[in-house]
Known about the structure:
Keywords: Signal. By secondary structure, the chain is α+β, with helices and mostly antiparallel strands.
Amino acid sequence: MISKKAIALCATVGVAISGIAIATPANAEPVSNSYSIVGSDTLEDVVGALANGTSITGSSVRSTINGATIGSFDATGSPYITTKSAGVRFGRPNGSGDGVKALSRSIDGASYTAGTAGSPTAAITGQVDIARSSSGGTANAAGELLYVPFGRDAIAYAYKGAASGIDTLTVSQMKSLYECSAGFQIGGVTVTPIIPQAGSGTRKDFLSKIGSTEALMLTVGEGGCVVEGQEHDATTLTAESVMPMAVSRWIAMNTGASYDKRGTGTLGSLVSGVVPVTGTGTAMVPNAVYYADTTWGRDTYLVVEYARVNSADAKYDANLAALLDPNQSTALTNTSPVVSRAGAVKKKFGFLAPTVGVVAYRVAKTA
């Protein structure tokens, strides 16, 4: 757990000055003079909004540290990034797994190679402070990392096509599709399954939830039927195709909080009789019933080196601990629904508060 000492540091995490507003993420890379954040595509827009400043709730909110800004780097863009002033150039982490791997290499100093094609390999000691993760890790009481709950999300699917039943697929049908079984057809029509890139937390969660594995799912490159694409980009849907979709990203694309990558896709439900969202357009919000589903709902996390938020450790960083302390009003992990709080910003991006009882826990760093 984050040290209680951090609670006393309320002044270290500040609210943005009036006038800073971000409706969609900027194209340029961030400028940070404190902490850098990489990883999950699912969380990139909401974390970017909190880092850069936003008035999407009607009140200016920005997570800062003693007046210093933080930088959150998108999962996609150029093949490389530079996160710190005069820092080394290294491969862009694309997805939760890549982000946690980069954080691990930042801790231990070993060379890091991103999954992003064409990216350079480099030693990145001290270049990453926080990783965004849309999936959890395996608890380890002696782990070097700490997974801190960020918000509640859910997984549904986006689809395109007119095949009978494509709008109401079951878990068993999804498993059949992604394992290329039975001619991978729905209603007698061949449907193309699309999966996010390797290292994606959504890919990991989706396969687990449909009861499949990386070994059972065969991509086109492996002689199978599954097409790999960038997660949450429904513009890549072709005629008669499906892809996993974080409900939070779908909501944000409808409300204007995120870039619109819906294309001509439609959101389907994986919980029988329950729709993932309510409302339309800018009024769209999460359906709490769908998010509460024990299979398709999921908690998301910000990952940090445990030693740096443990007040008993020599590496303890009080400012970093404060940034991840949910008791602080504009900390990245805050869940308050008040419009001037980070929790209210998260809801605009399709996230609800983490599941009651879910707490920070330790995980071993990635090999």
